[in-house]
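Discussion board: Methods & Data

I've been asked by a reviewer to show the raw model output for two of the constructs in my manuscript, not just the figures. I'm not sure how much to include, so I'm pasting the format here to get opinions. Each protein appears as its amino acid sequence followed by a line of discrete structure tokens. Is this the kind of thing reviewers expect to see in a supplement, or should I convert it first? Here is construct A:
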Amino acid sequence: MVLNHYERPGLRVWWCAALVGAALEAHRGGDPPVHWLITDRFEGFRFAGLPMPDRLMAWLLGKIGDAYGLLLVARPDAEVRSRSSLLREAREILREDSVLGITPEAASGSGPELAAAWPGSGAALSWLSSGTTPLVPVAVRDDEDGALVATFGAPFTLERMNDEEGARAVMGPVAALLPPELRGVYSED
């Protein structure tokens, strides 16, 4: 599943992931579980208005990841080896017919509109799909009444492609599920 990194005041992206996970569980009976790929750090995170130390948040994310089976993705400037081993682990999860969830925008998407996918995510998703594993676009947004809704699109596969092509091929179907004012940098796709 590929979903937008939808946030607004009072709503962080993990609530969107919880909504999508609950919808998938209701549809599939909870099996297989969703394994989320998330960032390995929250820099500048604030709790109740107080800044939290980045090292504390990295430690906490590690503990949460261990408890809930989350795959922690290193930032684009991190060592390539850590990202490549994570991608191999993600591919094994997919081979077991489990579900992966990812927001390719990552921290660049800190508002309601679509932002550019993080460097490397387009190439990584095209490698994971490799023309055989389907990707399901999901768009999360508030409806006219203020209710949080998730819209699931038609599955598609990607052949191997470069990062920019992969990002556009992944984010275009997500953008198509959103109203024009939320499509952001993918409004032309």
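Construct B, same format:
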Amino acid sequence: MPVNTSVIYLYDGSFDGLMCCIAESCRQHELPTDILADGCPQLTLHPTRRIPTDRSDARKVVEIMQNRISPAAVKFVKMAYLTYISKELPILQFFRLGYRYGKRVFDMHADETVCTLRKAVQHLRNESHRFKQFVRFTEYDGKLIARIEPKNCVLPMIAPHFAERLPNEQYLIYDKTNRLALVHQPGHSAILPLDSFEPDLPGEAEREFRCLWKLYYDTIGIEGRYNPKCRMTMMPKRYWTEMPEFDSENDTRPESGQLPPPSLHG
């Protein structure tokens, strides 16, 4: 049985680093008070221990998880790692439960650890599904740029979708919350750290297309079926900030009542 300790593990924030924290816990037969990634506040009197990232140790933990529990457990833990909750300790506890009970751990619906991670992963899946629909690109010199502000780290979840939908495009999706960028060129995608990103103001042609899109969005609405409560359920307001159909600046029509024709040059 592992011994509860007052020590706090510190790691580099990577998935491999978290797996190394699990390896350290198993080696020392101890349960840390907490596991904190770099950059997290550390206002504590508890002793801390820096856990170095060793890919060999991380690979062994993943192999044990795959063989002792199931391949589905590895996928589940990787998704749990992408969630916005304080997931480190629950993932460690899930690993220990799975090591003891095998794949039956997924049937332990009343267990607090399993329940917490299930809810977090479901939230990640739901949010990822929404961003597949709600990402709005702006064109800059033939490149597509989008910004999102998710709660979870959704870029690894949505990357295959956009690579399949836009295989021949050059695009960048910037995650303001996690300071990451999904960068795609034909044949290759990568998720890279990016502290900040502020694109230039859209050009005239882009603004014209935004006005057209806003006009289309407003025109297809059926007044008799207007239901703001339903819309808030299906499309929560926090997604609106980067969606041109909700930007009042795209609602400016000339006094003639006609939108200027879009510029299709280039």
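Answer (T.O., handling editor elsewhere):
This is acceptable in a supplement if you add a one-line summary per construct. For B, something like: The beta strands are 3-4, 8-11, 30-31, 34-37, 48-50, 138-140, 143-148, 171-175, 180-185, 188-193.
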